[in-house]
Amino acid sequence: MPCTAAEHDSPLTHAGHGAAVAQPLHFKPATPSDDKLRSLVRPDRIHRSLYRDPAIFELEMERLWNRTWLYVGHESQIPQPGDFVTLVLAGKPVVLVRHRDGAVHVLFNRCGHRGAVVCNEDSGNTKLFRCLYHGWAFATDGALQGVPLRAGYKDCLDLKDPDLGMVQLPRVESYQGFVFASFSPEGVPLSEFLGPIRRHIDDLVALSPDGELLVTGGVHRYEFRGNWKHQLENLNDLYHPFFSHASTVREDGRQFKRRSGDEEGPQIGSGGKAGGANPSKAFDEIPLHAFAQGHSYCGSMPFSDKRSGADFERYRALLTERHGEQRTREILQPDWHNAIIYPNVVIQSAAQHIRVINPISVDRTEILVFPVLLKGAPDKINRDVVRYLNVSHSAASLIQTDDLEAFERIQTGLAADGFEWLVYARGIAQDTVQPDGSTTGHLATELPMRNQYRAWLDHLAPTSAAATAPATTTPTAIQP
Ligand code: FES
Ligand SMILES: [Fe+2]
Q1: What is the reported pLDDT for 5?
Q2: Domain ranges in the chain?
Q3: Do 436 and 196 touch, CB atoms closer than 8 A?
Q4: Class of residue 446 by CB neighbours under 10 A (exposed 0-12, middle 13-18, buried 19+)
Q5: How many angstroms is it from 233 CA to the middle of ligand 2?
Q6: Whether the CB of 116 sits within 6 Å of ligand 1
Q7: Distance CA 261, CA 279 (A)
Q8: Candidates 134, 159, 166: which one to mutate for ligand 1, based on the most atoms within 8 Å of Cβ?
Q9: Rounded to 5 degrees, what are φ and ψ at 389?
């Protein structure tokens, strides 16, 4: 289909006394109907407009991102009362903040007076947020606290109106310190939204000798010129590593060692003349699991389990003390690699990190990668997590950059008119529905992508009236 049909307002408007005033042209992309949206997602193919049409991007924000649960941040980023971090969530400025009573709130970073962004820092600690324009001040739960020259509002404005504060997002919940929020007061509780994908958060927590994660190791932040869905698809795409990342692999098919203590690097290719670009059969055998809500995870990569060194042995001993031998072995060799919590966060076991997807426009996306440190682990083990990410997932890393190049090439290639479909058929005949309702597959299947677009359709062109029900509940906060 053509990207969008465009309508525009008249370029001339008459203002008072018949005077014609030139107005800018306002092009409005046509909103696709629900039937049209359904026609764009086939079981084994996706229409290119899902990556290129600004009207579809707007609908994604309105019907998916504004209604589902979104990951906001981790409680360890705001340990003390008054601690805050700011971010953009589904295009809107918000603040994650701990109030003086210890409760965690997610507030619109917007002044109740004339709408200015109130807090301009990335993070910090404060007793009050004060707006730079006219000095209105807000408590860390968002309540309007101070109004300069207050008498001027006497008899004309109720300053107790909660809408004049920094308004709280209607729903905020936390799981193991992972804070999620929703712009919609309606919808399933967080526990139901996460479902079985919760297990991967538990597994990350289990890596900590004290049972606590610290998302305090900084952040890698970068943008690519492409649609946000390229990144989500890629993280359970087992078909690409031998080719996209061939430059990181030696002739025997092994990649570089990623961590100190690792005795060998991951076996990415199968070796031979083509080296890294010679596909390894092992990737075809990695299982993939897809769940309702669009979540999925892939089994563990063929990384070496041979890790040694004094710091690692000290770390292993701490875990063994807490969990015993058998469980410690399982904890250190998790049976998964990337777990996607659709649509905005992915956690990884090997290079312990939280990756957040922040769509900017239909063809521009920001990514934030936070190393996950382990409370109670030797310093060297935590420093290794940061070093690992510097090498593998930073904007200047050896691996992530390959993927970003692929995303930009797709975005550019999709401009070619007359070729309408992207193919996601791989392994579809082997998709197996399990008794618990999840779907499994292997053969480096494109099941996770098919699953993401099923969830996408459930949000964008829902068949039940309940999915579009209006909002009615009051805001929630996470109590200490
Ligand atoms: S816009 Fe914030 S005080 Fe006026
Ligand atoms: Fe990759």
Answers
A1: 35
A2: 70-175, 196-460
A3: yes
A4: buried
A5: 10
A6: yes
A7: 27
A8: 134
A9: -65, -35
- Whose Cα sits closest to atom 3 in ligand 1? 134
pLDDT of residue 148: 98
Structure tokens at 400: 């992530």
Relative to the CA of 112, which ligand 1 atom is closest? 2
Does any ligand 1 atom lie closer than 6 A to the CB of residue 134? Answer: yes
Q: Where are the alpha helices (DSSP H) in 285-377?
A: 310-323, 325-332
* Overall pTM surpassing 0.85 (yes/no): yes
Q: Residue 107: helix, strand or coil by DSSP?
A: strand
User: What values do phi and psi take at 34, rounded to 5?
Assistant: -60, -40
What confidence score (pLDDT) does residue 475 get?
63
Orientation of helix 310-323 relative to helix 379-392, angle to 10°: 110
Residue 38: count of CB within 10 angstroms of its CB? 14
How many angstroms from the chain centroid is the CA of residue 70? 7
CATH node for 70-175:
2.102.10.10
Among 66, 64, 118, 22, CA closest to 459: 64
Give yes or no for residue 369 CB within 6 A of ligand 1. Answer: no
What integer pLDDT is reported at residue 17 of this predicted model? 37
What pLDDT digit, counting tens, does each position of 231-284 carry?
999 999 999 998 999 888 888 888 887 777 788 888 888 888 777 788 888 888
CA distance 456 to 71: 17
Cα 399–397–258 angle (5° rounding)? 70
Which tokens in the block code for residue 73? 């941040």
pLDDT of residue 469: 38
Q: Please report where in the chains the tokens 């917007």 appear, as a residue.
A: 110
Contacts 24+ apart (CB under 8 A), 389-396: 389/220, 389/351, 389/353, 390/220, 391/256, 391/258, 392/258, 392/351, 393/220, 393/351, 393/353, 393/355, 393/369, 394/220, 394/222, 394/369, 395/220, 395/221, 395/222
Which residue has its alpha carbon closest to ligand 1 atom 1?
Answer: 114
313 Cα: distance to centroid of ligand 2 (angstroms): 30
Query: Cα of 150 to ligand 1 centre, how many Å?
Result: 13
Omega cis (within 30) before 343: yes
**pLDDT given for residue 281 in this prediction:** 82
Q: Which residues of the chain have pLDDT under 50?
A: 1-21, 465-473
The whole-angstrom separation of Cα 270 and Cα 354 is 29
CATH class of 196-460: alpha beta
Tokens 């063809």 label which residue? 363
Which structure tokens are listed for 1? Answer: 């289909």
Q: What is the pLDDT of residue 274?
A: 79
